[in-house]
């Protein structure tokens, strides 16, 4: 009789398991197998009988409410899609980046696409020397106010006196707000010179721009993210001159400004304020790393999980306590040459994977690539110029691991003045720059037109992949930025002291978009869509955060990762404040993903991030999210 009673109970359960193909129903079987029916239960008679016999205790079922997309959220993923080239392989960051609960992550979906290029705007009016993506999906960029006429005048008309030239006025725009979807341009007013300045987003989403040249060398400029906002400026806000300095946010939302020409120090400024009490600290490390031709400007700066700060200049690096000025530790020398301006290599903090037992203690790794010899600028600066080959090597080091050493590998081609961008997948894009020479006016030759995809979790020797080349040289004073749809905006290139449209490498006002391989049309069937989270775009440190998604495939924690990207301020080949976090997963279905927000501002400084759901190397469109206490 007992077997008949069990059968009567078994049949409805089998019906439920058949019905729930795309539903998340957890009956407590702790099934670790990949299930094609998309529920957390093995519907075999043996497992169900185990449940009925009391060998498996049920947990409380979860029935998430359905979520529906709001109009326009998915964007135009098909627009400007990357062409498929069977001769070139695809792929993204490897399994280690997912950190799933149910074993190793599944491999990324493959594509034959090498990426694709389109011209997004034939003339933006202003050469892009510095760029920042804002939380309203507008990109702000500017060059310098001392290059003479640009290609667009202020609208509405605005003129200001030209410093050091009595009687002259300048009615040309030197900054713009660029709509990354439509290409529409709005001119911006700049009262102080932004040449070779620094910047970043504040915790409230404002662009805080610091330093520059002439009357701008101690300036602070603040611009809110709105459709008609302008910069507010204080020409004497900084404690020291900041020309070729680096700006980076600390755990409490304040900024550290490091170095600059003639500034062997750093200072800390509060966010979003034009006037405050100066906090300046000496930094003898910048004296020690200065060559005859500097090679320590725009130092590479990163906040570490313990709240200390990593600083790399020339070929050396240290870790400091930013609030006391104390040097905590000096790291090994990186051999091969100089890496900072004007030798101008590239660097990034590799993605931080928080799927670890104690995220606060996560080990973090920095990569430094390219550059040139210590004396390269001595020969490229003035005629008759000699252009030394750029460096090909890259070094990686765990910066908060005692005794760590540099691990060296080589790019497929030499590169100086390139950009290094963290992609939503956890891969790195190396783009722009030249093969010989250095930064500065007319100091380089042989543009490097071939982007590189670097997959940090692949085996050494298999990490670099060449992508589709551009047809436009992007050399000195060019920029790039990751956009919410995963495309890369590429603009700028002006190697001359004035706008020159007839030179061998002319001033370039065209704006391109590059679609990385993960945007190939053959991957669209695997692409998640983030649905409207309504008011739930605010994250709190250490708290659960739910993301509503739509995905036409059954998935679990081995298929999905969620990344969180801090859009940087990019200039002169370095993306200041750039950071990508791989969030800790809690639950995954094809309707909802729950993650744990980063534990503190030491891991994720407060402010605005782009959040992506990545399905085996195929990212969703990004959603803006803000994290704070």
TrEMBL record:
Keyword line: Signal
Domain Galactose oxidase-like Early set: 527-627
Signal peptide: 1-20
Domain named Glyoxal oxidase N-terminal: residues: 129-518
Protein name per UniProt: Galactose oxidase
Keyword Signal: yes
Region annotation Disordered: where it falls in the sequence: 70-105
Pfam families named among the record's database cross-references: Glyoxal_oxid_N, GO-like_E_set
InterPro entries in the record: Gal_Oxase/kelch_b-propeller, Gal_Oxidase_central_sf, Glyoxal_oxidase_N, GO-like_E_set, Ig-like_fold, Ig_E-set
CDD domains: E_set_GO_C
Statement: the UniProt record of this protein carries the keyword Glycoprotein: no
């Amino acid at each position: 009789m007992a077997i008949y009673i069990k059968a009567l109970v078994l049949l409805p359960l089998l019906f439920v398991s058949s019905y729930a193909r795309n539903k998340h129903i957890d009956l407590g079987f702790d099934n670790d197998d990949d299930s094609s029916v998309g529920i957390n239960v093995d519907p075999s008679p043996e497992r169900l009988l185990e449940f009925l016999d009391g060998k498996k205790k049920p947990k409380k079922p979860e029935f998430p409410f359905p979520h529906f997309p709001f109009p326009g959220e998915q964007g135009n993923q098909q627009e400007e899609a990357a062409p498929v080239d069977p001769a070139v392989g695809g792929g993204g960051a490897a399994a280690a980046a997912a950190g799933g609960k149910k074993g190793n992550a599944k491999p990324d979906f493959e594509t034959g696409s090498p990426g694709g290029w389109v011209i997004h705007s034939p003339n933006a009016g202003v050469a892009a020397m510095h760029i920042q993506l804002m939380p309203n999906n507008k990109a702000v960029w500017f060059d310098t106010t001392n290059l003479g006429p640009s290609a667009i005048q202020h609208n509405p008309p605005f003129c200001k006196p030209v410093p050091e030239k009595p009687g002259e006025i300048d009615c040309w725009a030197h900054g713009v707000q660029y709509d990354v979807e439509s290409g529409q341009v709005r001119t911006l007013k700049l009262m102080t010179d932004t040449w070779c300045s620094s910047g970043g987003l504040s915790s409230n989403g404002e662009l805080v721009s610091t330093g520059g040249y002439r009357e701008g060398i101690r300036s602070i400029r603040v611009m809110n993210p709105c459709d008609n906002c302008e910069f507010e400026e204080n020409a004497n806000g900084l404690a020291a001159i900041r020309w070729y300095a680096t700006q980076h946010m600390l755990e409490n939302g304040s900024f550290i400004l490091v170095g600059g020409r003639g500034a062997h120090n750093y200072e800390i400024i509060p966010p979003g304020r034009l006037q405050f009490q100066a906090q300046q600290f000496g930094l003898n490390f910048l004296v020690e790393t200065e060559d005859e031709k500097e090679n320590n400007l725009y130092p590479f700066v990163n906040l570490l999980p313990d709240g200390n700060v990593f600083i790399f200049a020339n070929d050396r690096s240290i870790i400091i306590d930013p609030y006391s000025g104390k040097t905590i530790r000096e790291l090994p020398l990186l051999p091969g040459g100089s890496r900072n301006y004007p030798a101008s290599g590239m660097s990034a903090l590799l993605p931080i994977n928080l799927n670890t037992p104690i995220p606060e203690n996560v080990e973090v790794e920095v990569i430094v690539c390219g550059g040139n010899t210590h004396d390269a600028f001595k020969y490229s600066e003035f005629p008759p110029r000699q252009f030394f080959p750029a460096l090909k090597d890259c070094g990686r080091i765990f910066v908060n691991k005692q005794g760590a050493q540099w691990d060296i590998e080589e790019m497929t081609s030499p590169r100086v003045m390139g950009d290094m961008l963290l992609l939503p997948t956890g891969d790195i894009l190396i783009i722009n720059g030249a093969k010989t020479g250095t930064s500065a006016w007319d100091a380089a030759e042989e543009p490097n037109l071939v982007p590189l995809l670097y997959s940090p979790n692949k085996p050494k020797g298999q990490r670099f992949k060449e992508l589709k080349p551009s047809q436009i040289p992007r050399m000195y004073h060019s920029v790039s930025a990751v956009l919410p749809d995963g495309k890369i905006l590429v603009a700028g290139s002006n190697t001359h002291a004035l706008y020159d449209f007839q030179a061998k490498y002319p001033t370039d006002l065209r704006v391109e978009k590059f679609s990385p391989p993960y945007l190939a049309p053959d991957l669209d069937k695997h692409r998640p869509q983030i649905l409207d989270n309504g008011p739930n775009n605010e994250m709190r440190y250490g708290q659960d955060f739910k993301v509503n998604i739509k995905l036409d495939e059954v998935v679990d924690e081995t298929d999905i990762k969620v990344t969180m990207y801090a859009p940087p301020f990019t200039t002169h080949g370095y993306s200041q404040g750039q950071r990508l976090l791989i969030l800790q997963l809690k639950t995954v279905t094809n309707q909802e993903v729950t993650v744990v927000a980063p534990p503190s501002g030491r891991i994720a400084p407060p402010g605005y991030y782009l959040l992506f759901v990545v399905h085996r190397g195929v990212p969703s469109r990004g959603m803006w999210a803000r994290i704070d206490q």
